[in-house]
Amino acid sequence: MHAFGAMGFATYQLCLSDSLAVNGSGAILGMLGDKYNFLLTQVPVHANLVFKAFEADATSYFLFGGAGGSVGLSSMTVGIPVAANVTDDTTFDTLTLTGSATFGGQCTITLGKFVLSPFGIYTYTAGSYSYSQISSMSYAYPSGSGSIHGYSTTVLGFDLLYKPLNVSLSSLFQNTDRYSLVSIALKWILSRG
Q1: Are the C-beta atoms of residues 173 and 131 closer than 8 Å to each other?
Q2: Percent of the chain residues past pLDDT 90, beyond the cut
Q3: With 90 as the cut, is the pLDDT of residue 21 above it?
Q4: CA gap 43, 41 in Å, rounded
Q5: Using CA atoms, how far apart are residues 176 and 24, in angstroms rounded to an integer?
Q6: What pLDDT was estimated at residue 166?
Q7: Cβ(159)–Cβ(167) under 8 Å?
Q8: Among candidate residues 141, 130, 50, the one with its CA nearest the CA of residue 98
Q9: DSSP secondary structure, 140-189, as one string
Q10: Do 46 and 27 touch, CB atoms closer than 8 A?
Q11: Integer Rg of the chain from CA
Q12: Which end of the chain is more exposed for a tag (fewer CB within 10 A), N or C?
């Protein structure tokens, strides 16, 4: 089976004052399969509040928090043989709902031609799921629901910007209940035009 899809994403930020901003983002993803009448949609949304807690000549501290969620729907046709040369084309549907809460902070320190920005983020995610299988005939199939066990994600990292060349070195350590990830990236601005 091959799947084809598209995604749209939007984000909006509003500065309520010099020290307080809110932002929100949302997306919609759709995929279609060339077999089994496969359909998948995902709609995540998230909102954040950013507060500048302190600012001095060369240092500033930001605190942020937010909440979000995601709705996922999928559907596909599954053939169940019920007799010789007879197939019940059932529709198998799933629904997943997840919610998350995020808290964190970031400090920005100017050191001459360098800007150092260490940060930390904590996110907790949990949710629920349900599924059903509907017969195209008159058979009964099981359905069910349950919870998606909560899990946490911790991200610690820093960005180091060298202002004269607009080059930055970024590093982060991400840890969850299931895995740990270390990432290092070198970024630069190609053009200001």
Answers
A1: no
A2: 83
A3: yes
A4: 7
A5: 24
A6: 87
A7: no
A8: 130
A9: ----EEEEEEEEEEEEEEEEEEETTTTEEEEEEEEEESS-EEEEEEEEE-
A10: no
A11: 23
A12: C
> DSSP state, 36?
T
Tell me the two tokens of residue 97. Answer: 């709902």
Give the pair of three-digit tokens for residue 27. 């997306």
Let me know: does 187 contact 167? Beta carbons within 8 Å: yes
Q: How far apart are CA 90 and CA 165, in angstroms?
A: 60
Whose tokens are 């020290």? That residue is 19
Nearest in space to 68 (alpha carbons), one of 144, 149, 129, 11? 11
Looking at residue 17, the DSSP 8-state letter turns out to be S
Between CA 151 and CA 134 the distance in angstroms is 32
- Which residue, among 143, 149, 147, has the nearest Cα to 129 in the 3D structure? 147
Model's pTM, two decimal places? 0.78
What is the structure's pLDDT at 189? 74
Output the six-digit token pair for 10: 């939007």
Whether 95 contacts 72, CB under 8 Å = yes
Write down the pLDDT at residue 192: 58
Tell me the residue type at 119: F
- What is the rounded CA–CA span in Å between residue 137 and residue 90? 8
Report the pLDDT value the prediction gives residue 28, as an integer from 0 to 100: 97
